[in-house]
Design a protein that fits this description.
By secondary structure, the protein is of the alpha/beta class. Helices cover 42% and strands 17% of the residues. A seven-stranded parallel β-sheet has the order 3-2-1-4-5-6-10, sandwiched between helices. The chain has a three-stranded mixed β-sheet with strand order 7-9-11. It has a two-stranded parallel sheet with strand order 8-12. Strand 2 (30-34), helix 2 and strand 3 (50-53) form a beta-alpha-beta unit. Helix 4 packs parallel to helix 5 and helix 9 (232-243) runs antiparallel to helix 10 (253-267). The relative contact order is 0.14. The structure holds NADP nicotinamide-adenine-dinucleotide phosphate. NADP nicotinamide-adenine-dinucleotide phosphate binds next to helix 1, strand 5 and strand 7. NADP nicotinamide-adenine-dinucleotide phosphate (NAP) binds next to helix 1, strand 5 and strand 7.
Length: 309
Amino acid sequence: MTVLVTGATGRHGGTGAYVVRRLREHGIPVRALVRRLDERSERAAALGAELVVGDLADHRSLASAVDGVSSVYFTFPVDAGIVPAAANYAQAVRETGGSPRTVVMSMGPATPTHPSHLGRHQWLSEQVLQWAGLDVTILRMAAMFHEDIPLLWKHSVRTESMIRNCFGENPVSWLNALDAAEFCVAALLRPELFADKAAHYLPGPEVLDFHQITKVFGEVLDRPVGFEPISREAWLAELLDLAASPHAGLLKPDMARHITACGHAVANSLERGNADYSDTGLFRRVTGREPVLVQDFLTSNADLFRPER
Ligand SMILES: NC(=O)c1ccc[n+]([C@@H]2O[C@H](COP(=O)([O-])OP(=O)(O)OC[C@H]3O[C@@H](n4cnc5c(N)ncnc54)[C@H](OP(=O)(O)O)[C@@H]3O)[C@@H](O)[C@H]2O)c1
């Protein structure tokens, strides 16, 4: 009963690479979809995964990936292209005549009316999978990943000890990407827990505003870190400059537009989907594990935020 894992190399949150590892630990046969053979695909192969080279941007490359699998972990980066990716995947499944159960990694902003274009695209991609008649379990992570903190603020914390954004004074739910992935592993291994409806929300285990985030930063780094709420337009301009700079890392313009729209939605209490943000114990109940907290993540990654010598 082979599971196909898309995004198996992982990049930002790295959920696909984690799902490969955990399924192999459970002795499940895994087929890993990779775009190229490199040292990251080799890591999946070393865990015993079968490698298939393919691209979600081209349905012709996906037939051998989907052929004969019983379930699929479907993820795509927070970037443009999710709607054609879903359509190409659905077309490949229909062409090969299979009916794998598809566990979709999704986000809270996946609604038809969200201010984020990527939130709306994510929602539309889920509609495409359902129109195609696929058996889908959609897991909407209703939180920011901890991994977004270095992506968005590593440079400003390092150089100015400052965090600026347009989330305003409202709190945000926080979740570690690997805990999000563990929740998806639970959905792959125990479908019965998720059989009652197509879309499920996972809020993070804690809800913190940016005054609280900078307080944690101060404790971890042993120096004060400030927070300045700025307008959506000002934060977008700052992130687009960062994305075009040598300090961009994995930050892309589409992510900048997405996250500033999310900040605007949070600050103004706009569309936030149907998540119950007060259910901070859901991850524990489903996985039986303790979640990683912001304090843990920043402590483990403190060196990222120290000034470069
Ligand atoms: N960041 C957040 O705050 C947040 C919050 C809630 C939910 N989420 C959800 O998390 C998901 C992203 O997961 P993630 O962080 O694990 O992603 P990630 O680490 O950025 O990994 C993306 C993977 O997709 C692969 N990929 C990219 N384009 C591809 C294509 N055209 N064909 C095949 N593979 C392709 C990448 O391969 P390469 O290595 O070849 O590029 C990589 O392995 C999104 O669906 C988002 O909704 C994120």
